[in-house]
Design brief:
The protein has 309 residues and is an alpha+beta fold. The protein has helices at 2-23, 45-61, 193-203, 222-232, 253-266, 297-308; strands at residues 32-36, 42-44, 64-69, 76-77, 84-92, 103-111, 133-139, 143-148, 154-159, 164-169, 180-182, 215-216, 235-238, 270-272, 292-295. It contains 6 helices and 15 strands. Bound molecules: 2,5-anhydro-1,6-di-O-phosphono-D-glucitol (AHG) and manganese (II) ion (3 copies). Substrate binds at residues 92-95, 184, 250.
Length: 309
């Protein structure tokens, strides 16, 4: 019951973000700030606004012991008696804000261990298998929620006239096969060999070993790409990058990879780093990054076979 109340609170924050996003230039919310986040990215105004909205509403709710966010350097202590921890990417795809394209909020919730102090980051260092609920809200032509509490992944659409997220697709099943892939091909020279070989075979199309043509899509917002994969299948990759072995891949385990892996597995898909299940990665620090390969089950398995070869 308390989890439902927490989710309602979180979604109230997302509705507020949805409203702010839709105001765009009219409210002066587009463009960048002068500050950088701990990831070394210039913060967009909407990154900061969205983070503040979620931080305020979750801190005041009473349900949350602490939060961690892409836009916060450290864990933020909330209510010492709160039973939950919330990790979030307040605004995913924020480079899309200034071009009126897809963006969203990604979140995951775990129980707060009794022993922890509210400002103790180590409580967040749990593998994704401990998640009790995860989801995203996509701020697109409609605002849509994808949510899982561990019993399937379900889609809801925001009814702006009544202000509620209404169930519009129960128990999403990601098609097991696909002919569509998503990867930022400008990084090709930095990919590790299995990814070079796998993508090479997709691009070879009908004439290559796969014997069929593949299409490519890239929204530059994980939330948009994952929504497409949940809706019609596909494989999404942000793989290991040889440039910086200290920083494997771009996407963040707590705020992006884990929640999306949870939703994908609950919808019959797979989510891997290339070397193991994303949800089993034991985090060593809250802002940790991981390689991400997820989507249609059989296609992800095919991709992983290149790692074993
Ligand atoms: P964020 O806006 O939260 O920092 O995340 C951006 C991420 C992710 O949404 C997307 O898949 C990826 O960055 C896009 O990366 P490229 O700039 O390489 O396209
Ligand atoms: Mn960012
Ligand atoms: Mn993001
Ligand atoms: Mn973000």
């Amino acid at each position: 019951m308390e989890l439902i109340l927490l989710l309602r609170t979180l979604l109230a924050g997302c509705k507020e973000i949805s409203f702010r996003v839709s105001q765009g230039a009219l409210a002066g919310v587009l463009g960048s700030t002068l500050s950088e986040n701990v990831q070394g990215e210039t913060q967009k105004k909407l990154d900061v606004i969205s983070n503040q909205i979620l931080k305020d509403i979750l801190s005041e709710s009473g349900y949350v012991k602490a939060i961690s966010s892409e836009e916060e350097d450290d864990v933020v202590a909330c209510n010492p008696n709160g039973n939950y921890l919330v990790s979030f990417d307040p605004l995913d795809g924020s480079s899309n804000t200034d071009i009126n394209s897809l963006i969203g909020t990604i979140f995951s919730i775990t129980h707060a261990p009794q022993w922890m102090d509210a400002d103790d980051p180590s409580a967040f260092l749990q593998p994704g298998t401990q998640i009790v609920a995860a989801g995203y809200v996509l701020y697109g032509p409609s605002a849509m929620l994808a949510l899982s509490t561990g019993r399937g992944t379900h889609l809801y659409t925001l009814d702006k006239t009544h202000g509620g997220f209404l169930l519009t697709q129960k128990d999403v099943q990601v098609p097991k096969q696909t002919s569509e892939f998503a990867i930022n091909a400008s990084n090709q020279r930095h990919w590790e060999d299995p990814v070079q070989n796998y993508i090479g075979d997709l691009i070879a199309g009908e004439d290559g070993p796969r014997g069929k043509d593949f299409n490519m899509r890239w929204v530059a917002a994980m939330v948009g790409d994952i929504h497409r994969v949940l809706s019609r299948g596909g494989i999404f990759m942000y793989p290991f990058d040889k440039r910086n072995p200290e920083m494997p891949g771009k996407l963040r385990l707590l705020y992006e990879a884990n929640p999306m892996a949870f939703l994908m597995e609950q919808a019959g898909g797979l989510a891997s780093t290339g070397h193991g299940r994303i949800l089993e990665v034991m985090p060593t620090e809250i802002h940790q990054r991981v390689p991400v390969i997820l989507g249609s089950k059989e296609e992800v398995e095919t991709c992983l076979s290149y790692y074993k070869a």
